Amino acid sequence: MNRFVALLAVALAAGVHYAPAQSADGKLRIIAFGAHPDDCELKASGVAALWAAQGHKVKFVSLTNGDIGHFEEAGAPLALRRKAEVETCARGLGIATEVMDIHDGELMPTLENRKMVARLIREWQADIVLFHRPYDYHADHRNVGVLVQDAAVLVAAAFFTPDTPPTKKNPVFLYYSDNFQKPYPFEPTLVVGIDEAAEKKWECIRAMPSQFADKNSWQGRTLPNVPEDAGQRQAYILEVLKKRNVDVADKYRERLVQLYGADKGRKFRYAEAFELCQYGSQPTLEELKKLFPTFR
Fold first, then answer.
1. Domain spanning 3-194+270-290 has what CATH number?
2. Cβ distance 80 to 43 under 8 Å?
3. In whole angstroms, what separates CA 160 from the centre of its chain?
4. Do the beta carbons of residue 205 and residue 238 sit within 8 Å?
5. Would you indicate the residue range of the signal peptide (predicted)?
6. What does the pLDDT look like over 132-153, one tens digit per residue?
7. DSSP character for 177?
8. In angstroms, rounded to a whole number, what is the distance separating the alpha carbons of residues 188 and 156?
């Protein structure tokens, strides 16, 4: 029995059940949390575009303003620039976005921030919540995981942050994929083929040069063999990021085949992967597939 199946059995035994769409029109409401203004976009903009195309409501939230994620500029000018970039990206994807005014590198798992996360989920009346696992190289990423997990049960508690209405049912919480192995490796519950939305994802990435194109952007300075020419540099970095989505599809090819069938599962070039968190509603695999695009 793998870890997902074991956790699902425990949750179901405890009486935590699947929550369908909470809105009257049957459309899903999805909120995704990232540590910085580019994390949600890297991990979930493909599936977000697919959801949005079906009329579902998606919101990306960065819990820090990204004001030190560059090697040449910082502070308010960088924070404003990165906010404008993710807003451009959101317009292209057809979703909403919000950037919280917390300094990059300073996100802490405090009660105040737990309340902030709970309010954001409650205000959006989310059916699905996406976020980082709490195992990561970056403290901000880890603390996003801690904060969302700690808010998971509280979003349905009437008297926690009573200035916002509780969710009618507990949302489904899912982690983004990552490659970290300790203390627990990522295990994909769903792997979503995003080929039909891939170009929207690449346009989103092109809209964020402060992270993915500037000579002194984080990727421009930390990736190996980055070209000096500006146009070649942006194209090179984009190809690196495209390959990460190719790698997700290839790494979890067997899971794609299980989920989509052999013919379709083998054809996907790009994918995003998600693991069901043991907190929140616990849909069966078939119920979960109905909540995500491309499986119907």
1. 3.40.50.10320
2. no
3. 25
4. yes
5. 1-23
6. 999 999 999 999 999 999 999 9
7. P
8. 26
